[in-house]
From TrEMBL:
Residues 17-171 form the DUF83 domain. InterPro entries: Dna2/Cas4_DUF83, PDDEXK-like_dom_sf. It comes from the Bacteria. It comes from Actinacidiphila epipremni. This is Dna2/Cas4 domain-containing protein. Pfam families: Cas_Cas4.
Length: 173
């Protein structure tokens, strides 16, 4: 599917869903990602997530916005995102809100979103209203501040890094 063009009045630093997810998961991860450190390709957990994404809801079509790729959007402009996680996360909701904001900026009247967790057969609704829009815009500002910082943010506590593909960089000797 072709990318939907971004409004030229938009900021030159386009942010995708991965930027917002990393911001909420670990700002250091976002900072490293933006500087070209990409260990995800060697991560078994990332590979597993890609398999879950490719084998779940196979009749859907990704929506390529250029800076972001939405899993799918249903009639009525409901954004859908599939996660391989066994636990809902604020990062997942933030990612869906970001997609809603990107679509709204393109003139689409978005109604909200749903995060699908096929491994636990659960979904979470992500509302789209003035408060959600403000959260999405604030997340963009925070992400840009992290990206622009000259030094990486501090590490999270070791226990929060479990399963992260950036662990070796942050905690390796």
């Amino acid at each position: 599917m072709n990318a939907i063009p971004l409004d030229p009045a938009e900021d030159e630093q386009s942010l995708g869903g991965v930027h917002i997810k990393y911001l909420h998961h670990c700002p250091r991860q976002l900072w490293l990602y933006m500087r070209g450190y990409r260990p995800e390709a060697r991560s078994d957990l990332v590979a597993f997530g890609e398999v879950v994404d490719e084998t779940t809801f196979t009749r859907r079509r990704d929506i390529d916005l250029g800076e972001a790729r939405i899993d799918w959007v249903t009639t009525g402009a409901i954004v859908h995102e599939t996660k391989s996680s066994r636990a809902p996360s604020v990062a997942h909701d933030a990612q869906v809100r970001h997609y809603c904001l990107l679509l709204e900026r393109r003139g689409i009247n978005v109604r909200g979103g749903i995060v699908h967790y096929p491994l636990i057969r659960r979904t979470t609704d992500v509302p789209w209203d003035d408060e959600a829009r403000e959260l999405a815009e604030t997340a963009e500002d925070e992400a840009r501040a992290v990206i622009a910082a000259p030094e990486p943010p501090g590490r999270l506590t070791r226990g929060k890094c479990r399963g992260c593909s950036y662990t070796d960089y942050c905690w390796g000797d």
